[in-house]
Amino acid sequence: MTKIGLEIHCQLTNLESKLFCSCKANYRDKEPNANICPTCIGLPGSLPRLNRKAVEKAIIIAMALNCQTPKKLAFFRKNYFYPDLPKNFQITQLNVYGPTSIGLDGKINVADKEIRIRRIQIEEDPGRLIYEGISEKNLITLVDYNRAGTPLVEIVTEPDFENEKQVRLFLNILSDLLENLEVADPSLDGAMRADANVSIEGSEKVEIKNINSFHDCEKAIHFEITRQKSLVDRGINVPQETRHWDDKRKITTSARSKESELDYRYFLEGDIPWIIFEKDTIAKLKNNMPESISSKKERYISKYAIPPQVADVLSSDKFHSDLFEQAHDESNAKEIANLITTDLMGLLDTREKREQSKLNPKHLTDLAKAIVENVITRTSAKTALQEIVKSGKPLSDIISTFDLGNVSDESEILKMIDEVISEEKQAVEEAKTNPQTINFLVGKVMQKTKGKANPVITLNLLKEKILG
Ligand SMILES: [Zn+2]
């Protein structure tokens, strides 16, 4: 049987400062090596000071993934030499003196399949290596330590996945969950990175590193399963090793024989004392946790009768569910949920578009009202939404500037109806016995008015004309 496990590194991007010093946690868009201090580059004599907020955020993640939280936290040094690690050791967590990492033995359901979480640990991100040069011969490696010391949470699953599709689904769910918990913005480049362990029946465990996106994670696992199968089929032994994902060639290549835990010479980090939680710390954090995605979904369905599929899409997207929360009341919830999921999500489908959008919750409230009161049709509402996102102008201005208001003038609609009746003789005959066909004729009138005819008036006038 194919077994796949994941090690996911999630940066706590919503924090102000790094894990052990006061440098900015947001290292992005800065000159290389401008976001560093003696502590995060490990100068002799510097000492780490643990970021309390990082521990709190990590506890929240552990609780959301149904993990046990330990009574005490301990930190360890993981020793290895590599240019991206200025101290020559990474401060991380380990469970050799009992459970001392931030989370243990959790679980999460992914499409009716239970995925077990083995452990969650807090650790620091290393620096970043940038490779430059045109050929193998003059390849140079540049080091940027701006990222060194950024707070990370590593989530390790049991090998409970059977295929790449399950992995992708899990990563999407986890990403929504982290965003909903307000601990991270997983859409930032490099904020969420997954390594995968893959073994098929009869092979040793192979670790794949260097995977840069969820899409590539799916591809890398698929490639690795196929590679291992072809070796096993030919009676060739699949050795335990670490392989790198080559995102240009879309293959995995052998990196080095996997180091064992012993090679890292772990020992207790003596510069950070053991942390014992005060009695009510965890209870307090639990009480202040943001509402979970599943509870939001339930509420949307039971309180507002929003269809389950719409509630599902809306609740799992933090950006849009926040908009919904601010825009809706009891009376318009369904209409606003509809507007967001059918029209707005398509317009704001990337991070950049969301950042540039000028839309505010009041726009949605106004738009829902205009639809219900027949000031504007659904078709025109779509156009209005596009213009609002671009300019942020009030709805009333947009309706008059772009002439989007409903045509409610009966004489004007009657003119169109007469045209349609003379063009659609067969449908008109059918409509006399089949009420469904009337809707077809309403559609025809709509086309003539570019979607602006008041649908209720149009329907009534058509019925009067045809059925008498
Ligand atoms: Zn620093």
Produce a short descriptive summary.
The protein has 468 residues and is of the alpha+beta class. The protein has helices at 52-64, 164-180, 214-233, 281-287, 293-304, 308-315, 318-327, 333-347, 351-356, 361-372, 378-391, 395-401, 410-423, 425-433, 436-448, 455-467, and strands at 3-11, 72-73, 76-79, 89-92, 103-110, 113-124, 128-132, 140-144, 151-157, 192-199, 206-209, 241-246, 251-256, 267-268, 275-276. The strands form 4 sheets. The chain has an 8-stranded mixed beta sheet with strand order 5-6-9-1-10-11-12-13. A 3-stranded antiparallel beta sheet has the order 4-3-14, with no helix packed on it. Strands 2-15 form a two-stranded antiparallel sheet.
Explain what this protein looks like in three dimensions.
- By secondary structure, this protein is an alpha+beta fold.
- The protein has 16 helices and 15 strands.
- It has 3 domains: 3-283, no CATH class; 291-401, no CATH class; 410-467, Arc Repressor Mutant, subunit A.
- The strands form 4 sheets. It has an 8-stranded mixed sheet. The chain has a 3-stranded antiparallel sheet with strand order 4-3-14, with no helix packed on it. A two-stranded antiparallel sheet has the order 2-15.
- The radius of gyration is 29 Å and the shape is elongated.
- Residues 18, 21, 23, 36-37, 39-40, 149 line the site of zinc ion.
